[in-house]
Structure formats: C-alpha cells, structure tokens
Amino acid sequence: MRQTEAPSDLPRNILAKPLVIPRDQHPVSRKDIAEPALKVLYRLHNAGYEAYLVGGCVRDLLLDIKPKDFDVATNAKPEQVQKLFRNCRLVGRRFRLAHIMFGREIIEVATFRGHHSDEEEETEQTQKHAKRNDDGMLLRDNVYGTIEEDAQRRDFTVNALYYNIADFSIHDFANGVRDINNGVLRMIGDAETRYREDPVRMLRAIRFATKLSMRMDPSVADPIRKHAQLLQNIPPARLFEECLKLFTAGKALANFEMLSDYHLFQQLFPQLKNYLKAPEEAPYQLLRQTFADTDSRIAKGLSITPAYLFAALLWWPLQARMEELMFESGLPPVDAMNIAAADVIGRQMQSVAVPKRFTIPAREIWQLQQRLERAKGKRVKTLLGHPRFRAAYDFLLLRAATATPLEQKKLSQLAQFWTEQQEHAPAPAATPDNDERPAKRRGRRGGRRRKKPGKPASS
C-alpha cells in the first residue's frame, strides 16, 4: 500500500489519499462487532448512505481489545437517521448526534463533520452551526461535510480509521495503523490549536497513552502543561465523566501519575494541589494507594464505586477544613465534619461535578470513620450491620496503611480491632460495596401509632 503524504494545505499527519486496507489484509471481522452496530451499519447502507465504524472501536479491534462502544459515522444527517430508526433519539447541542437504542446498549451515529469557515468569512447563518469562544474552544460544531473532512477533524491519527461495511475494508486517513504498530500517539493537525478547540483532548491524550501503552509524540506532549488551565472552561459535569474513564478502567495509578506530571490533575482537583508537592508524605501516599487499590480490584474482577474513590481523594482536604473549623469556631468534631464535608464537596463541584448518588455515600464513609473510633459495647454490633460498614472499614485500612507517624499506631490498632470483630461476630448481610444508595434511616422509636378503632361498617 503506497502512502501519499498530505499537501501543505492539509492538517499535519493527514494523507492526501487514504490507505484502503482490504479485508484480507486486516484482522477485523464482523463476528467481533456487536450485533446492534451491524444492524445500524446495514440499515444505513441499504438505504443508500455511507456507513462506517469509526475511531476507537476500529483501533481497539486492530489491537485485539474488545471495544466498549461501537460508533458509526455516515453522510446521513441526524434527521435522516432518525427516519430510519424508530428507536432513535437526537441528542447534543454542541455535537448533534443520533443515539440508536437497543435495550441498554446505545449505538452512537455521527454525521461526517466538515470544516469551519475562516473567521472573516463567518456569517450569521454559519454561526448557527459552528461557534468558538475567545480561547478558540468550539462551543457548537454542527458543520457537516465529507468523510475526508471528517477524518481531518479527528483528534489522533489512531482514531482516523474507518471500517466500511460495504466491502469490509479499512480506510486509514492518517497512518493510524503505522502509529498503532509503532506505539506512538500523534495528533492530527497542530496540537495547540486542537487543545484550544477542545481542552478535554489533553485528558484523552493521557488516557490513550496509558490504555494503549503508547508514548506521546513530543508534539502532543509538550503543549499540555502550557494549556492545562483551559480545562477550567469545560463543564464540570463533562469532567466527571472523563474522571470515570480515567480512574475506573484499570489504569488509575498510571493516569494519576501522568496527569500530575502534566499539571492536569491539579485542574481536576484544585484542593489537592498542595499535597502533590510532597510525594513522601501521607496525603500523597493515600492518593497513590487509592488508585493502586482501584486498579487491583478491577484486575481481580471486583466491583468499585466512585463514591469510595472520591471519599478517599477528598479526605485530606476534609481534615484540613475540619481543623480550621474546630480551631476558629470551637466546633466539636461531628459538627465540624458535617460542615467541612459540605464545604469540600461544594468546592469540588466547581471543577468536577460529582453527582449526589456518589457524594452522599462518600459522606457516610467519612462519618463512619468517627463512629469506628468511638464505638463500644452494643454499638460495635450495630456498626457491623451498617450498609456502608465494609466501605468504611476498607477506607480505615487504607488510612492505616498510609498514616502519618503520629497516627500510625492508633490507626493500626483500630484497624486490627475491627478486623477481629468481624472474625468473632460476622456481620449480617449488608448492602454490597458498590451500592451507591444512601443508607436507610431507622424509623421513629415506638413504631407506628395504632389507629383508633372505628365504628363497625353497617351491613
């Protein structure tokens, strides 16, 4: 297959003509593609539209990795896609997409993206479809085009791969297959411009480098520290979804270390900024061990919950805020923790919006740390049956393993005590560790009041 380099007017790393890899020269088979994705591809194709699997799913299939999602690209407009599928809904304002629903599985269908007009040529009409802010970030991106233009709009060369359902060939627009084989992550176009268009691409660069065991090309890596603060322009809810991808897929520790090195972790968790400066001290060690434990559980096929993860990440900011409140206002520890928890979570929500279904259990894990320290007599048995006991106990073990010298002995003894209590008096069946539902409150003392007997019904 002869490679044709791109003319100077094309983005960096884009080929003038794509490499078309026939079926007998690549390993991607239809048996490895989810049935719903095949249904979408064939219905689009049979209706006369172009239909391709695109991006990460093609990349992963070439790497013999089972794709988590299958995305489809087509020349059909979203409204045309919707007419073909009764189980379709259109979503997104920034990127208009069609979601084809197959039970709990969703196949995302995107129309080929085109180029934006130059700034001096933009009209009121074009701005309805594409818009940038002052930093160059795309606020709206619904300019449609051809497959060639769509490939140029992709972020990394390894994602500019299209599997054609018409003849089962792969169209490689940016030497993506070569970069996969060489283990190099390259950007399509100028990296600084692409990061300004969508700062989340910096997080994606880190995630792909660790997930795919690739090294970032210097042109990809070098601008990241300079532009890390652009993450402040991203909606906190979107950054929460990115955090889940970074920290709950088996590469949490590697991602943490790279994110910290490139000053991105500090943007996601500003309250942890100072703790990253002292890797030998307890707060940093707790962070590192949290991510290592998360990876270990995933490798063993065990469940994890973001509630536990965020409880651990924000523990030391919580302790610092509690100490402030107790010193300045003389509050008792229980009251100080409740106020500090609200403050710390509130600050975190400004950068990464953690949903209540995770912050409520996280607060319960924090509150149980105090109760584990004070429990005696009958309260020990009560705590053993608490729905959040197991998560709180695991967190206690984590604290003991990463404690400061002053707390090491106390926390180790406390952890040993609760370990022995479970051995001697096994707890009753409790809520699974990954259940994010808030623990149920006990009913009022005395039970329900009895109703006064009424008059007998007349016959």
Automatic annotation (TrEMBL):
The active site is at D69, D71, D155. Residues 330-451 form the Polymerase A arginine-rich C-terminal domain. SUPFAM superfamilies: Nucleotidyltransferase, Poly A polymerase C-terminal region-like. Gene3D superfamilies: Beta Polymerase, domain 2, cca-adding enzyme, domain 2. Residues 51-186 form the Poly A polymerase head domain. Its EC number is 2.7.7.19. Residues 115-134, 417-459 are annotated as: Disordered. It catalyses: RNA(n) + ATP = RNA(n)-3'-adenine ribonucleotide + diphosphate. GO terms for biological process: mRNA processing; polyadenylation-dependent RNA catabolic process. It comes from Pseudidiomarina halophila. One of its GO terms (molecular function) is ATP binding. This is Poly(A) polymerase I. Keywords: ATP-binding, mRNA processing, Nucleotide-binding, Nucleotidyltransferase, RNA-binding, Transcription, Transferase. Residues 214-275 form the tRNA nucleotidyltransferase/poly(A) polymerase RNA and SrmB- binding domain. CDD domains: NT_ClassII-CCAase. It holds the Pfam family PolyA_pol_arg_C.
